Structures are given as structure tokens and as C-alpha cells.
Amino acid sequence: xxxxxxxxGAGMTGSTTAHxxxxxxxxxxxxxxxxxxxPQGKALDLLEAMPVIGKDVMVxxxxxxxxxxxxxxxxxxxxxPRKPGMSRDDLLAANAxxxxxxxxxAIQHSPEAIFxxxxxxxxxxxxxxxxxxxxxxxxxxxxxxxxxxxxxxAFVAMELGVSVENVxxxxxxxxxxxxxxxxxxxxxxxxxxxxxxxxxRLEAIVERTxxxxxxxxxxxxxxxxxxxxxxxxxxxVEAILKDKHLIVPAAVYLNGEYGLKDxxxxxxxxxxxxxxxxxxxxxLTDEEMAAFHRSxxxxxxxxxxxML
Length: 308
Ligand code: TXD
Description:
Blueprint: E1 4-8, H1 12-23, E2 28-32, H2 38-47, H3 50-53, E3 59-62, E4 73-76, H4 92-109, E5 114-117, H5 122-133, E6 140-142, H6 145-160, E7 167-168, E8 171-172, E9 180-181, E10 187-188, E11 191-192, H7 193-196, H8 199-210, H9 212-220, H10 227-241, E12 246-255, E13 261-272, E14 275-279, H11 286-307
Parallel strand pairs: 1-2, 1-4, 2-3, 4-5, 5-6
Antiparallel strand pairs: 7-10, 8-9, 10-11, 12-13, 13-14
Helix pairs in contact: 1-2, 1-10, 4-5, 5-11, 6-8, 6-10
Bound molecules: 1,4,5,6-tetrahydronicotinamide adenine dinucleotide.
């Protein structure tokens, strides 16, 4: 029997995640959305693509949660995306309501599921999902770090004219403009980035990475990025279902790690069949730690607003 992954929110990121999951034959996919007919139509269209690429997965869609029953993983992308000029935090109140409803419904039909959250503001929504679902912190993980790191990797690869496969970058912290690209831990084929790039070029890449989401929002004008976010979610889903013990940056609940408590925040984690198997703690310099805590402060403030 195939694994089952349900995606709540069949908009740009939700349907693109379904596309990657089906194309890679990772799981049967269920799309749920409030818009009538849309998840059904997208699912049917994707299902009809499978004979051409010879992949045996079921893709279905609907507006009711009973079709998600028994999911191994629930991906939550439901919510509003940013418009030009908006920060991710501007989405807080509206998306919190959507997350509450989606999580309550999803956990009822899939009590054993692991949740992968994408909705913004990401760290806060991952925290909220955990609280509403009432599950252990190991079972909720928010996607941001793979995407932010991939953006930085793409920029470094272009700058140096090397394969993206040779570039390893680690962007941690909250998924906002205060995110923390760790240049000291990033490298090209083992050579630290700080040795290979002039300081001003490295700073420019860090800055472009921080504003990477906004750059795309500004270009698209309606909606935000979806190809790269969706493949990042797909990598997490695959790591969990295949029990890969893959270490990736992702937003998880912290209970003292990095000196931070009671928030979801982007750190390196090991993903396997149980969800978050381990939180990896880098040894950070005082400066890096200060940047980490600055970023965490913003997330904490939003959590406080939400819980009032
Ligand atoms: O890396 C990341 N974490 C992100 C996050 C990268 C890209 C997008 N990011 C955020 O994900 C973005 O800021 C939004 O908060 C979400 C979804 O972005 P997407 O681009 O997929 O937005 P769409 O295309 O508007 O799709 C959202 C869908 C849409 O079809 C709505 O009808 C649906 O969500 N929706 C709902 N579905 C189910 N249940 C409820 N209540 C609901 N409300 C809206």
C-alpha cells in the first residue's frame, strides 16, 4: 500500500507540492480546499498525467476532511499569501484562524499523522498547529530553512559558476527578514564561503537571500513563490516517509536548545519516520547567537499576540 499525504490548501504551493510528490511516486496524494471543485479538478488533472510518466499513485481532491482519513502526513498550506509590500507577519490573524480550523479537522481524521506546515508567518503557524493538534513536538515541522538555504545556494552557484550540488548553505532562524544565514557553516566543495567570496559579494548574497521571498512577491505581484517552497516540502515528506534521518534546517519546537524556549524556530533537525528525531545544536559565536535571538524575538512577539 502506498503512503498517504494530504495537503490542506490546494493553491499554488499545495498543488505544486502534489505535483512533485506524485511525479516522484512518493505517496498517494489528497488535496483539500474550501473552493468548490478546484481541488477535485486539479487532482483529476494530475492523476491523468500519471500514465504518461508511468507512476502508480492515486491523486484525489475534495472539500471535506473525511477524504484525508488515515494520512501518514498532513501538509498545511491553507491561508493567504503575501501581496507586494506586505510582510509575512501581516498575515498573522487571518491565517491563524485558517490554521486552527485545518488542524482541528485534520487531526480528527488522521490521529497518527505528522504535520508539515508551510503557511505564513511560518514559525508561528507551526507552533499553533502543534498546540491545536495537541501532539508531541516531534510530530510538527515547519518548512522554511530548506527554501531559504536553497535560495542562498542558487545565488552562490551563479556567482561562482559552480554546480548547485557543490554548494552547501545553512540558513537558520525565523522565516522573516531577520533570518540567519550562517556564512561560517556554508561552503563550496568543503571550502568555507568566507574564504572563497569577497566580503562585499558575500554580504550581497546574504542580503538577497534574506529578501528572497519578497523579490519573488514583487515580481509576481499576485501571490508568492511556489516551485521552490513545494520541492522543499517534498524533500521533508520524503525524508520522513523513507526514514532517511536527513538533516535539514526546519522550524521545530524548542525547549531550551540554543537558549530558546517555548517557540517554533528554524534550526537543523534530523527527519525520519517519527518526524523530528533530533535537534542539532551548532556551536555559535556570540555574534551568531545574538542574530539568532534577535530573530527569535520577532517570533516570540507574534506568538504572544496570537495567544492573547
Ligand atoms: O516557505 C514557506 N513557508 C512559504 C510559505 C513559501 C511560500 C508560500 N508560503 C505561505 O504559504 C504563503 O504566505 C501562504 O500563507 C501559504 C500558501 O501560499 P500559496 O501560494 O499556496 O497561496 P494560495 O495559492 O492562495 O493558496 C492557498 C489556498 C487557496 O486555494 C485557498 O482557497 C485555501 O488555501 N484556503 C483554505 N483551504 C482549506 N481550508 C481553509 N480554511 C482555507 N482557507 C484558504
